[in-house]
Amino acid sequence: MHRLTDGYTPGHEDRTALLSVRIARELQLDAQRIMQINMAAQVHDIGKADIPLKLLNKPGRLTDAEFTIIKTHVQVGYDILKHIDFPFPLAEFVYCHHEYLDGSGYPRGIKADQIPLESRILTVADIVESMSEDRPYRRSLGMPAALAEIRRQSGQRLDPVVVDACVRAVENDPV
């Protein structure tokens, strides 16, 4: 039996959306594109409604089999959103939020410019929010650690332009 939320995910989506919008503003994207990024961030983990709560809230490290189940949230989210007629590719933005520039992400292992900019923004915001906030399974690692991590992955897994915009957004207006 699954509940629709784990209690953590809605707040995570809100915080990820706020940071995504701040990054988009740093990149000087137009208002319509910023609204699209905000909407995608607000629902990027909708597919987690299909993941057992005991798995979402599991303390400690996940097994490979458990992580494989967690990764299905991207496909489930895409499958839900692709049937809704949005005037922009919202489902695709959500589908790509765990893809990385070097092709090491999931679910498709796409690379670089195959990943929409909106998704590259969402990926960076998701990582920063996930690391800098308490999670059901661990305490916050802090914003300095989150920024160090995205800097470490910049140019390899993460878009360096987006990483730089995120760092500027956080340093100019720490939350």
How would you portray this structure in words?
This protein has 175 residues and is mostly helical. The chain has a single domain (9-172), classed as Hypothetical protein af1432 (Orthogonal Bundle). The chain contains eight helices and no strands. It has helices at 9-26, 31-43, 53-56, 64-81, 90-95, 117-132, 143-153, 160-172. The radius of gyration is 15 Å and the shape is globular. It starts with 8 loop residues before the first helix and ends with a helix. InterPro entries: HD/PDEase_dom (IPR003607), HD_GYP_dom (IPR037522). It comes from Herbaspirillum lusitanum. Residues 1-175 form the HD-GYP domain. Pfam families: HD_5.
Q: What topology emerges from the helices and strands here?
A:
Elements (H helix, E strand, L loop, with lengths): L8 H18 L4 H13 L9 H4 L7 H18 L8 H6 L21 H16 L10 H11 L6 H13 L3
Helix pairs in contact: 1-2, 1-6, 1-8, 2-6, 6-7
How many domain regions? 1
> Approximately what portion of the residues adopt beta-strand conformation?
under 5%
Major β-sheet, in short? Answer: none
Order of helices and strands: HHHHHHHH
- Tally the helices: what do you get? 8
**Average of per-residue pLDDT values:** 90
**Helix/strand/pairing category:** mainly alpha
Shape: globular
Fourth-level CATH superfamily: Hypothetical protein af1432
CATH names the topology as: Hypothetical protein af1432
Helix content: 55-70%
Q: Which regions are unreliable across 5 or more consecutive residues at pLDDT < 50? A: none
CA-to-CA gap between the ends?
Answer: 37 Å
Give a count of the beta strands, DSSP E runs of length 2 or more: 0
CATH class placement: Mainly Alpha
CA radius of gyration: 15 Å
